[in-house]
Specification:
Protein name: Molybdenum cofactor biosynthesis protein MoaB
InterPro entries: MoaB, MoaB/Mog-like_dom_sf, MoaB/Mog_dom, MoCF_biosynth_CS
Distance between the termini: 39 Å
Order of helices and strands: HEEEHEHEHEHEEH
Strand content: 15-25%
CATH class: Alpha Beta
CATH topology: Molybdenum Cofactor Biosythetic Enzyme, Chain A
GO cellular component, one term: cytosol
Keywords: Molybdenum cofactor biosynthesis
Largest sheet: 6 strands, mixed
Family: Belongs to the MoaB/Mog family.
Number of domains: 1
């Protein structure tokens, strides 16, 4: 399991602007939550988490810091509580979940997490499905990947597939999350 738990300076000290003058927070403190019916309640000390590892690897390579990682079962209350706990952490600027975005009865991650959203980011799901078209074609209709801002923190809800996670994290999240975190917290800056 990829870990990168170094201390982060306060967000105010990581606030910057990009080449276009847009607010950014860089590096980001990242919480990764893996939702899995097959791994979340495992008795193993550290069960394998290839999708969580892929998220961590891509974001660490981009210079961000993984400050929290959790693996939990497909349980509505536990998902909502775990993401809420991550949002309460001062060292978390971004939350990424993986798993539980399909159409089966136990795929409840989007339902649980979206209740925490103050504002939805529908463009993420649209962009993710557009980028996924070449690989999965019409099967894109079965993903409920989504994103939003919850308590001034960008939250991305990804499928459990390693390919989907790599695509979303490399092509969208690593590019946009610093800017989204900067915009979502701009009202806190004097």
């Amino acid at each position: 399991m990829i870990q990168n738990r170094r201390e982060l300076p306060p967000a105010a000290d990581r606030r910057t602007t990009d080449a276009d003058g847009h607010d950014c927070i860089d590096p980001l403190g990242v919480a990764i939550v893996t939702v899995s019916s097959s791994r979340g309640d495992s008795v193993e000390k550290t069960p394998p988490d290839p999708s969580g590892d892929a998220i961590a690897s891509i974001l660490v390579e981009a210079g961000h810091v993984v400050t929290a990682r959790r693996m939990i079962p497909d349980d509505y209350v536990q998902i909502k509580t775990t993401v809420s706990d991550c949002l309460d952490r001062p060292d978390v600027d971004l939350v990424v979940t993986t798993g539980g975005t399909g159409v089966t009865v136990d795929d409840v991650t989007p339902d649980a997490v979206s209740e925490l959203f103050d504002r939805e980011l529908p463009g993420f799901g649209e962009a993710f499905r557009w980028l996924s078209w070449e690989e999965v074609r019409t099967r894109i209709v079965s993903t409920r990947a989504t994103a939003g801002i919850a308590r001034d923190v960008p939250v991305f809800v990804l499928p459990g597939s390693v390919n989907a996670v790599e695509l979303a994290t490399a092509e969208i999240i690593s590019e946009e999350a610093p800017h989204l975190a900067g915009l979502a917290t701009r009202h806190k800056v004097e």
